[in-house]
Each structure stands twice: as structure tokens, then as C-alpha cells.
Amino acid sequence: MPERTPETNVIDFRAAEHLLDARDPRGAIKLLDPLIAAHPESRAARLLRARAYFAAAQLRSAEREFQHILDHEPDNAFAHFALARTLERANRPSEARRHFRLAAALDPRPDFIEAAGFGEPD
């Protein structure tokens, strides 16, 4: 395999974004895996891969990736929201609610507030 360069990393990241937008999450994951292996600290690549895992219904992998992001960025509202959606899809509503509420507390966007269900019984 040819050596990765900063340029190939950027090209692969952008191509993975396009594949995810084109509803090819598995293709995106294939491009992101070697990029993340070379740069495990890249949170942007990890977030994109987490979204791709979610879109591919690979919920355990998505959960693991979103949790990794939150371990390093506990104030990432989108990662909390996306993890909540993942947990919700995995039929774990009480865990999901916690992350929906954290997302809404960190960023009071209307969709985060609505998903948090403030005022609804637990």
C-alpha cells in the first residue's frame, strides 16, 4: 500500500463525506479506516466514521466511536445527540435520554431541545 500523505488523507476524507452523502456508508468506512489508523487522534475522521457506522446500522461500532469522541470532547453536543440517536435505535431509551439532555444543555438547538423531552415524565 502506498504511503499516506496529508493530501491523500484530505482526499480520502472528502471522498468519504461524499460517499456518506450518497448513502454509501460502507464505502465511507473503507476510506476512513486507514486514515484513522494513521491518525487515531483525528476527531473529524472519527466523527464521520461514527456517522457512517450509524447509517450502515452498525450500532455497536457507532456507539463505540461516538463514545471515543466524548471521552476526548465531553462538551461535544452533536456527539451526545448522535450517541443518543444510536442508543435510541438500539432500544436503550433511558441511556439515550441522558445524552439527548446533555446535548440540549450544551447547545439549545430546537431539535436537541425537542429530543431531550424536557417536561415529559421519565
Automatic annotation (TrEMBL):
Keywords: Repeat, TPR repeat. The keyword Repeat applies. Pfam families: TPR_19 (PF14559), TPR_2 (PF07719). InterPro entries: TPR-like_helical_dom_sf, TPR_2, TPR_rpt. It comes from the Bacteria. The keyword Repeat applies. This is Tetratricopeptide repeat protein. It comes from Streptomyces pathocidini.
